[in-house]
Amino acid sequence: MAEKHVSLADQAYKTIRTNILNLTYPPGAQLTESKLASDLNMSRSPVRTAIKMLQADGLLVSDYYKSMTVKVITRKDILEIYQLRELIEGNAFRYIFTSGRYEEYSYRIEEKVVRMCAVAGDLYQWELADTSMHMEIISIFDNERINRIYENNMSELIRMGQYSVRHGMVISKTNENLKKMVLLMRENNYQAAYAVLKEDHFTIGKETALG
């Protein structure tokens, strides 16, 4: 019986988390235990456990009056996350070339870009694939602490990416730009390859996320 309860709580957690990340429950949306239980067709007990887990993740927040909302993404959040990304990914991308592994990583990144192209019709799945592509870039460091920084901010990364697309970033254009970046990597052209990444993800991505 306990195993079933844990399983239901995990299921509730995963479903609610996905609904937050794919913006079904958008930032600032007010939620209640009864609404979530109704949406998931579950009793309140596993939903209550899932809510506690999501509050620990920082995805759900409660105020003094116990009103529960999906965590809002502020302008400051966006600026800080993109600054963090550019600092870490910028150095990782440079290291891919200075370590002489640019050809290897061109194929590793291309594999992620192929996935992005395959799911281009589904914004949420595309954003997951895009996040995976960025994780591939930072994998050059083989640094678990850096990986945890990204994982700890993953929900913001995924939601901000969708903001970017909804406010003007064009998926098809981004996919084509990344294909060009991969080819430039194979030519060992760091400057041109990084210019594509910087313009497409750190400049346009940030500006469109800000709205």
UniProtKB/TrEMBL annotation:
The keyword Hydrolase does not apply. InterPro entries: GntR_C, TF_FadR/GntR_C, Tscrpt_reg_HTH_GntR, WH-like_DNA-bd_sf, WH_DNA-bd_sf. Keywords: DNA-binding, Transcription, Transcription regulation. One of its GO terms (molecular function) is DNA binding. Residues 6-73 form the HTH gntR-type domain. Pfam families: FCD, GntR. Gene3D superfamilies: GntR ligand-binding domain-like, Winged helix-like DNA-binding domain superfamily/Winged helix DNA-binding domain. PANTHER family: GLUCONATE OPERON TRANSCRIPTIONAL REPRESSOR, TRANSCRIPTIONAL REGULATOR, GNTR FAMILY. This is GntR family transcriptional regulator. It comes from Muricomes intestini.
